[in-house]
Write a structure and sequence with these properties.
- The protein has two domains: 3-199, Rossmann fold (3-Layer(aba) Sandwich), CATH 3.40.50; 203-369 and 455-498, Dihydrodipicolinate Reductase, domain 2, CATH 3.30.360.
- The chain is 35% helix and 22% strand.
- The protein has 15 helices and 20 strands.
- The strands form four sheets. Strands 9, 10, 11, 14, 15, 16, 17, 18, 19 and 20 form a ten-stranded mixed beta sheet that branches. Strands 5-4-3-6-7-8 form a six-stranded parallel beta sheet, with helices on both faces. Strands 1-2 form a two-stranded antiparallel sheet.
- It is globular.
- 42% of the residues are buried.
- The structure holds 6-O-phosphono-beta-D-glucopyranose (BG6).
């Protein structure tokens, strides 16, 4: 399906919703945070919207010893707590008939045989027809064992149906490990059966970047180094690391978010027009950007990283990173990262892309701001334009999804005073349809075998090539900067951008 069609409709007939065919989703890591908060609710919402087939099956595989009833209760609670659509007992009744649990360790052959038996039983009883998607919502260190067990037990291929594997980020922790991982997965599953999830690509507002850029004529002439001064991509969170110390402390903000979400956003903003919105065409254009993108050469000048210390969030006192449960006192993992990326292409040479992300910042917001150069000449007295900034186009990815244009306007009165004003498009005001949650869209696409929203291994490796030197540079430092929770990050990040004579937006 093309990326710009209505995600929930059949592209051949706009009246028909896109409904997955007979299949199952087999969840590894079913008791984890992601499965409970996002994946299970998304499955319920898809079922509730009538987008799953009648015999759809959801299988959990974990080392817990749940009884069947206990497992069903766990799924029901997660679905009820996280669903975005209203609860309907009829939908649950239909869903519950296909729920199974397979207990076992990943290295226990008997457990994999039990999984194989369950899959065969579902094919017969639920009519899943040999179509099974394996969702690896587990630490990447466990991918090799799961993938090789799937192969060893003959579950990775089927003569009568499809098999797909879904991998959650992080895809490796550097270029070498990503290559290794891609080799392992690619040795078992063909490329068209591997679905790498970067959930930002499932967000409507991220897909709207393509609509905005390529459906309209008036922005394209400005979209280059003649008119754009710089681009700021911000993903700020007000939450801390919560209960994810085990995952987060070995990773940090740059690997967690910049390597995937923010570099993908940058590629969509910077890429040339694709020949179509098919996966293969999009990939070609994104890869060209990633292959030409590099961190600014002075890593000490143009990167910043830091850890939050105690402060305030939402009117409450919150603890610092080192006081979070499970974080070692000696940790130098960054919860804030900022980096300047330069893209060596004719369109973008000389236009810095500043990427930043952090936990425990002032508020939750993700946005892309394209900041334009000032007019070459301004026929106004200096004191009339003190409140005039640069023109900017801001795409708000979340929350308050929309697009804002900032420009100067005359302040009413007898003088020619100019001040910045905002022209605003808000999704909520313009459309009545609510957008599907990113995971709903992505799970449906996996079940339909629809690939445009999933990065391929080349993109993942190119993104590591960009980030590896930054992470190596930080790894050589023995201490880490700090910032107070509830603020907009460390002073070093302000200094970094000030070296270029610019400042961060306060979103
Ligand atoms: C995930 C990161 O990919 O994205 C998390 O691992 C982060 O650390 C999350 O909190 C944010 O997602 P969203 O959709 O709330 O912006």
């Amino acid at each position: 399906m093309s990326l710009l069609s209505n995600p929930l409709r059949d592209p051949k007939d706009r009246r028909l919703p896109r409904v997955a065919g007979p299949c199952s989703l087999i969840l590894f890591g079913v008791t984890g945070d992601l499965a409970r908060k996002k994946l299970i609710p998304a499955v319920y919402d898809l079922a509730n919207r009538g987008l799953l087939p009648p015999g759809f099956a959801l299988v959990g595989f974990a080392r817990h010893d749940f009884g069947h009833q206990e497992f069903k209760a766990l799924i029901k609670k997660a679905a009820k707590d996280g669903a975005r659509t209203p609860w309907r007992d009829t939908v649950w009744k239909q869903l519950v008939a296909g729920i199974r649990f397979v207990p076992g360790e990943f290295d226990d052959d008997a457990a994999w045989q039990r999984l194989g038996d369950t899959m065969r039983e579902l094919d017969e009883q639920q009519g899943t027809n040999g179509n099974h998607a394996f969702y690896l919502s587990i630490p990447p260190g466990l991918f090799p064992v799961v993938v090789s067990q799937l192969e060893k037990h003959g579950l990775a291929q089927s003569d009568n149906g499809w098999r797909r594997v879904v991998i959650e980020k992080p895809f490796g922790h550097d270029l070498a490990s990503a290559r290794e991982l891609n080799k392992i997965v690619g040795g078992v599953f063909p490329p068209e059966s591997v679905f790498r999830i970067d959930h930002y690509l499932g967000k409507e507002t991220v897909q709207n970047i393509l609509a905005f850029r390529f459906a309209n004529g008036m922005f394209e002439p400005l979209w280059n180094s003649n008119y754009v001064d710089h681009v700021q991509i911000t993903m700020a969170e007000d939450i801390g690391i919560g209960t994810r110390a085990g995952y987060y402390d070995g990773i940090g903000a740059a690997r967690d978010v910049i390597q995937n979400h923010l570099l993908q956003l940058m590629a969509l903003i910077a890429m040339e027009e694709p020949v179509s919105f098919k996966a293969s065409s999009l990939r070609i254009e994104k890869q060209k950007i990633l292959a030409n993108a590099r961190p600014a050469p002075r890593l000490d000048f143009h990167t910043a990283h830091a850890q939050y210390v105690a402060g305030w969030a939402g009117g409450e006192k919150v603890r610092g990173y080192l006081q979070e449960e499970g974080i070692p006192q000696s940790s130098t993992t960054e919860s804030y990262a900022a980096v300047r990326i330069d893209i060596a292409t004719r369109r973008w040479a000389g236009v810095p892309f500043y990427l930043r992300t952090g936990k425990r910042l002032g508020r939750r917001v993700t946005e892309v701001a394209v900041v334009f150069k000032r007019a070459p000449h301004q026929p106004f007295a200096k004191h009339d334009v003190v409140e005039l900034g640069e023109n900017a186009l801001v795409m708000r990815i979340q929350p308050d999804e929309g697009v804002t244009l900032r420009f100067g306007a005359k302040v009413p009165g007898t003088t020619m005073e100019i001040r910045d004003v905002l022209m605003d498009f808000a999704y909520g005001g313009a459309f009545v349809e609510s957008s599907p949650e990113a995971y709903e869209r992505l799970i449906l696409d996996v079940l339909l075998g629809d690939p445009p929203l999933f990065p391929q291994h080349e993109e993942v490796e190119l993104a590591w090539e960009i980030l590896d030197p930054v992470i190596d540079h930080w790894a050589r430092q023995t201490s880490i900067d700090t910032y107070t929770s509830g603020t907009w990050g460390p002073a070093s990040a302000d200094e970094m951008i000030a070296r270029d004579g610019r400042s961060w937006r306060r979103p």
